[in-house]
Amino acid sequence: MKSLWSDREAAEYKTDLGLRVYTSRLLGRDPSLVLHGGGNTSVKIREKNIVGEEEEILYVKGSGWDLETIAEAGFAPVRMAHLLKLAKLQVLSDSQMVNELKTQMTKASAPAPSVETILHASLPYKFVDHTHADAVISVTNTANGWERIQEIYGDDVVIIPYVMPGFDLARVCAEKFAAEKSDRTLGMVLMNHGIFSFGETAQESYERMIALVDRAEAYLKKHHAWEISPPASLIRESEQRLEIAKLRTEVSQVAGFPVVLSSHNDEKSLAFAQREDVQIISQQGCATPDHVIRTKRLPLVGRDVKAYAESYRAYFAEEAPKSAQPVTILDTAPRVILDRQLGLVTVGKSAKDAQIVADIYEHTMEIIQRSQLLGGYQALPASDIFAVEYWELEQAKLKKGGSSPAFTGEIALVTGAASGIGKACVDSLLKRGAAVVGLDINPAIEKLYDRPDFVGITCDVSDETAIAISLDQAVKAFGGLDILILNAGVFPSGCRIENLDTATWQKVMQINLEANLVLMREAYPLLKLAPNGGRVVAIGSKNVPAPGPAAAAYSASKAALTQLMRVAALEWSSDRIRINTLHPNAVFDTGIWTEEVLTSRAKHYGLTIEEYKTNNLLKVEVTSHHVAELAAEMCGALFACTTAAQVPIDGGNDRVI
């Protein structure tokens, strides 16, 4: 564990709050310290209020902010005087605490203060840092963790037994810290939870955190509990596409909504999943209680999702009566799955959620294995973890509800996705909450978007092997396939039949027709498993109902594709797969409409380019966005009773009509 402090970087921050931002980001850069909203930092600053009175304000990390990217706006300013009064109370419910914190903020636009605000206020230091350092948790989560922490730190830290986060933890910490701190005190360790450091400057508090965590790492190394030896051999399975998709369907059925799966068969994940004792060590509980909100208390080992659900219901039935407040059972589906063939599979309502679970559990696997090497991993009792999972504040979020985007938890694949209609389809599907895989022959597709719910794959759709590989990648990334948008195509320069060479004809047929046949055939087993039924939309053409001269290959290929879709609608309806076709016309912001083609077609009809662009009954220009929005809607609830439809989107074409 090394300090990342830089005098040059720090000089850019001129205020205490600015330096608080800087060192918070330093902590956030290291995932072994904090992950996805974990950890807390604060600073106490004296300020004058609007009436000229000086008061001490605690700036504490606000809810919803990550330390890695936090800005000054991410800190909630709360009046210290009131916080110190609250710390002396014997009882304060979570809802009362949240209300009190909100009423004592000095900026109405600031985020909600952390639930650990009172704890930060009660510590008599200007700067306070709190992390969930992997190395410290690896030590605390053992049978004799308390003694080991004492061995590592001696009188340099105050040790606090596990208490649920919130007001009770703040009260216990305030009392115990006041009684046990000394001039040597550098920090505080919360058993099974994390570690605090503090100081009079941002640098002092940050570098104390680094030094304290480094001592835990050194202890693990000294006791041969740092390096995790790889297994002698690993089982690797190549054919997993359908297995993952089936697993996703079963998890979705138990959850009651579509989910995204993220599959990880790297060496570390497979090694953990294939441990002979995985059924024992993985079933102790999460590394820290706050992880339960993301990962649930236990992972599923193997693929018996129904058995997991039954076990979860039994866990709820056992613990719910002990709760101080009535609680409503959450969905019973796992969030982490450990499988000897698949490795680590994580589950989320969205791709982002699934990735967060993966990040957390990758660190959990290391913590568990290091604790094992140190004498045996031991998590908190189920009742303590249940209390956080069914925390009053978390239950309140459930009651508020709120609707999710239409395609949340669903997975779409779009061909020809780097530009034009394809890119617009990607945007429309992402906007509706889908995880999207984009295929394109242009390598730019791989960098189209940098976000967890998009994967771009360079793929020549006329290559069957490339399609198979792409589907494998799609399923590994997101778990299956619900929506297929067949958009990739070519539109050759105008050419009359008597001049049409065989090579051009065959190329157009191969890309516009045969590639879609292969993709549909390979995608069918996945679409059949879609929790809400599969949907396919093919981008046809006005040339199907109303072909024009000098476009024989294009017109024939799109007509054949339309007929293929009609047959598929007949064959696949019993599998709950609905298939529809859009027939756009004159969509000029696409890759196939080069200046050469546009000029040629306008000249053919004796029109200027601008006249050609709006050459329809409504005199409107049809854009990629218009087509994409309709394509997305055809995959949604409005078209739930429609299959084999052919819908024009052309501004009104008299020849079609």
Automatic annotation (TrEMBL):
Keyword Oxidoreductase on entry: yes
Keywords assigned by UniProt, alphabetized: Oxidoreductase
UniProt key word Oxidoreductase: yes
SUPFAM superfamilies attached to this UniProt entry: AraD/HMP-PK domain-like, NAD(P)-binding Rossmann-fold domains
Pfam family, one: Aldolase_II
Origin superkingdom: Bacteria
SMART domains in the record: Aldolase_II
UniProt cross-references to Gene3D superfamilies, sorted A to Z: Class II aldolase/adducin N-terminal domain, NAD(P)-binding Rossmann-like Domain
Domain Class II aldolase/adducin N-terminal: from-to ranges: 19-220
PROSITE patterns the record matches: ADH_SHORT
Annotated family: Belongs to the short-chain dehydrogenases/reductases (SDR) family.
NCBIfam families noted in UniProt: PRK08324.2-4 (NF006196)
UniProt protein name: Bifunctional aldolase/short-chain dehydrogenase
